[in-house]
Structures are given as structure tokens and as C-alpha cells.
Specification:
Arc Repressor Mutant, subunit A
């Protein structure tokens, strides 16, 4: 014994793949994408207003003010800079 395939592991792997497929399908749903884009636009507008009020902020400062992760704040600042919408 000890050779061959572990059916328990195969089942776990299959369940994991199904869960991943469901998660990907949820992300790809057009209605959810529209909601995400709307939310992101609102968040960007909030960042622009905050920068106009408080002046330039680094990622950490923005993250602290909006309750975001530093990585999320960095993404928003970079996106606004790339699109020319930053202050």
C-alpha cells in the first residue's frame, strides 16, 4: 500500500477547484463589475476631495484617513496620477 492516489486528497482538491471557480464567476459577473466600478469612482472622488482639503498625502496618510490598507491607498494614488485626476 502507500502507492497510488489518495481519494480523500482528490476530493479536497476538487472541492477547492469548484470553490475557486465560483469565486471567479462572482467576480466576472457584469452586474458586480458595474457595482465595483461605481464604488471605485466614488472612492476616487473622495480621495480627490481629501487631497484638495488636506493637500498632498502619502500612501500611509491617505490610508489612515480613509481606513484603507497602505497598498490600497498606493493603488488609488497611482491610478489618479496615471489618469491625471490627482491634485
Amino acid at each position: 500500500m502507500g502507492e497510488g492516489v489518495d481519494p480523500t486528497q482528490m476530493c479536497r482538491s476538487l472541492v477547492d477547484k469548484v470553490v475557486q471557480s465560483e469565486q471567479l464567476r462572482a467576480i466576472a459577473d457584469p452586474d458586480l463589475l458595474v457595482l465595483f466600478e461605481d464604488w471605485l469612482e466614488e472612492l476616487e472622488a473622495e480621495v480627490v476631495a481629501l487631497l484638495k482639503t488636506h493637500g498632498p498625502l502619502d500612501s500611509k496618510g491617505l490610508a489612515d484617513k480613509l481606513g484603507l490598507s497602505v497598498r490600497g491607498a498606493t493603488f488609488l494614488l497611482s491610478k489618479l496620477e496615471r489618469t491625471g485626476n490627482g491634485v
